[in-house]
Amino acid sequence: MTMTLEAPVPVFDEESTGRKLAIICSKGSLDMAYPGLVLANAALGEGIETHVFFTFWGFDMINKETMGHLKFTPVGNPATHMPPMLMGLPGMTSFATHMMKKQIEGIDIPDVPEFLEMITDAGGHLWACRMSADMMHIEEKDLYERVEGIISATDFIELSEGAQIIFV
Amino acid sequence: MTVAAIHGRDIHVDVEGFLTDPMEWDESLAEALAANIGIDLTEGHWSAIRFARSDFAANGETPTLRRMATTGGVATKDMFALFPKKPAKKMAYVAGLPKPVGCV
């Protein structure tokens, strides 16, 4: 143990790094919704400017109709360590979804709508993909109200300038 | 671990300056720690700090922002207003607690 005169003070405001994160969410299943949300939330807690861009199946995460009802299917997923023949049986998706939701809730992780609320409360930005919206005939009124806009791929490239990009 | 002088007292801290013994903390030390990082403690700060201290005492872990909101009743928005940019870490520092380890 050594003696010093003054205590070190943690460096909290590293403004100069200007770190920025852009996360692309392209999946609509319950298990694949979380990686992007967890990382976005963690980055925001570190004071990092964070943008989340939802595209293709990722629209299910911000579509008012579906965002609270994402599902998990064990079909084709060897990581469940269950016999593949059984995984396609009727009711299996509901069962697996129910189990996963219970596990998520069990460690006090919010569901998708609440997670998005937390992310935007922390200053995160949510964006929807123009092409996906056009394909699926979805308009802004169909989307979670905290989505800031439906933007094109070019817009996304512009706003993510200088950002680290994570594709989920 | 280092013994360092904070507010005229010898306190155990880690290399970053976080207290390593929460029992060495008291409210006057919190004022000094907050001043170190440019924060003037208001009643809002105190209610966050008091919940974090009692939650740590009960569970042995510094609450995350999520836990501050759901269990501590301090909304995420308010945490960012009270402890800008890095609310969980700044609060832990001022409260004399380790950095939170939870992911969410």
Short description:
The complex is a heterodimer of chains A (168) and B (104). Chain A is an alpha/beta fold. Chain A has helices spanning 30-45, 84-87, 92-106, 112-121, 130-136, 153-159, and strands at residues 2-6, 20-25, 49-54, 125-129, 147-151, 164-167.
Strand order across the largest sheet of chain A:
5-4-3-2-6
CATH homologous superfamily caption of chain A: DsrEFH-like
What is the domain tally of chain A? 1
Looking across the biggest beta sheet of chain B, what order are the strands in? 1-2
Q: Biggest interface, and residues per chain?
A: A-B, 26 and 33 residues
CATH architecture of chain A: 3-Layer(aba) Sandwich
Reading the helices and strands of chain B in chain order gives: EEHHHHH
Largest sheet of chain B: 2 strands, antiparallel
Q: How many E-type strands of chain B?
A: 2
* Computed Rg of chain A: 19 Å
Average pLDDT for all residues of chain B:
92
Topology record:
The complex is a heterodimer of chains A (168) and B (104).
Chain A: E1 2-6, E2 20-25, H1 30-45, E3 49-54, H2 84-87, H3 92-106, H4 112-121, E4 125-129, H5 130-136, E5 147-151, H6 153-159, E6 164-167
Parallel strand pairs in A: 2-3, 2-6, 3-4, 4-5
Helix pairs in contact in A: 1-4
Chain B: E1 2-6, E2 9-13, H1 27-36, H2 43-59, H3 65-70, H4 76-82, H5 87-94
Antiparallel strand pairs in B: 1-2
Protein traits:
heterodimer; A: 168 residues; alpha/beta; Hypothetical Protein Ychn, Chain: A; 5-stranded parallel β-sheet; 6 helices; B: 104 residues; mainly alpha; 5 helices; globular
